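Possible race condition, two jobs.
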Amino acid sequence: MPKKLTYEEIENKLKKLSQAAVERKTIEEAYRNIVENSTMGMHFYELQDNDRLVFIGANPAADKLLGIDNQAYIGKTIE
């Protein structure tokens, strides 16, 4: 039978989870900022369960370098 946690142990675990969530959000925001402000064009894809590679987006530099709006291709597959 698992040990019952005390109120303090539960509180500590919740604090750690909350801190981890804040750290993750900070890292995600930093990454997004780098991608959005990069002068290097980037396309992003997602490999789906059925082995289909689906275009999910691009950064502004990709639009500028290619002279197109990449949003028109979101959801399209590479074949």
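Job #2 (started ~2 s after job #1):
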Amino acid sequence: MLLTGRQNVIQFIFYCLGQFIGAFLGAGFVLFVYSETFHQYKFDPDLAKVFTTVRNPDVSNLGCFIDQVCTTALLIIFI
């Protein structure tokens, strides 16, 4: 955007800062939602099971509910 002239330098700096802050907030949100599973697997190679789309028996119903409500709320707010 800076190279095409749609933003000046100050706007570009704030844009980059916003992207970094958003990335860290998103990572923190994922850590919060899936924390119970992260703590169960610790450094196990099966940690990838956390991000599958099938029901994981290690995640409680409350964890699934929080995941769906928060994700739906984010979609409603930002899209």
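The chain has a mean pLDDT of 82.
Logs attached separately.
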